[in-house]
Amino acid sequence: MGHREDLLEGAKRCLLAKGFVRTTARDIVKESGTNLASIGYHYGSKDALLAQAYVSLVEDMGGAFDGDGTVDEAAPGSLERFARVWANIIATMKDPGSVWRLSMEVLAMGDRLPEVRAHLAAAQREAGRGLVPLLMGGREEDVSDATADTLGAFYVTLMTGLIAQWTFDPASAPDAERLTAGLRQVVEAAMREAPADGTSADGAP
After folding, report:
1. How far from chain centre, in Å, is Cα 44?
2. DSSP letters spanning the chain
3. CA dihedral of 53, 59, 60, 62, whole degrees rounded to 10
C-alpha cells in the first residue's frame, strides 16, 4: 500500500482503539508507519483523515447489513425485508465496542470536532443512498438525489436514533421486531386515512 492507504488503515485502527478525541496525528503516524507531512499531503488535516476513516469503517460493515444473504429473499419494500435488514443492522450495534459508538462521540463532542462533524454531515446523503436499495431493492447508482434526501434521510434518521438507544441503554433499545411492529401501525393508520377514491385527505386529487 502507499502512504494514503497506510494512513487510512492506521487511522481506522486508532479510531477503534481510542476514538476521535483521543487520537492524535502522532498516533496515526506511529500506527501507519508514515510521517506527519503525509497526513496534510493526502488528506489535508488529521480530522479530515479521521472522518474518512470512520466512513470507511462503516462501509466495511456493509456485508453485515446483508447478513446471511436472506435479505433478497424478501420482497423489496416489504415489512419482512424491513425486519430482516434492521435485524442485521441492530446486530452490529450490540457489541459495546461497536464502531457506532464513534457516532455518539461526534454527537456528544461535536464542538471539539468541528471538521470531523462537517465531513460526516456531508456524507449523510450518501449513507442514505446506500440504505435505500438495501431495503427497497435496485442499485445504489440509480437512487436519485431526491430519493436520497427523503427516503434515504428517513432511514439515516432511524439508524441514528437506534445507535443512540443501543449505546445509551441496550436493555430498553428496540429490536427489529418491535421496530417493524411500530412501522406496521404507522402504515395501517395511514391506509385508514386514505380515501378510497384516491383523493387526498383534504379532498384534492
Report:
1. 24
2. --HHHHHHHHHHHHHHHHHHHH--HHHHHHHHT--HHHHHHHHSSHHHHHHHHHHHHHHHTHHHHHTTTTGGGSPTT-HHHHHHHHHHHHHTTSSTT-TTHHHHHHHHHGGG-HHHHHHHHHTHHHHHHHHHHHHH-S-GGG--HHHIIIIIHHHHHHHHHHHHHHHH-TTTS--HHHHHHHHHHHHHHHHHHS-TTS--TTS--
3. 160
The whole-model pTM stands at 0.85
Residues written for the chain: 205
**Could you give the dihedral angle defined by the CA atoms of residues 193, 199, 203 and 205, in that order, rounded to the nearest 10 degrees?**
150
pLDDT digits (tens, 9 = 90+) for 146-171: 999 999 999 999 999 999 999 989 99
3-state secondary structure of 76: coil
Cell of 183: 412501522
Over residues 53-60, mean pLDDT: 91
In whole angstroms, give the CA distance from residue 85 to residue 73.
11
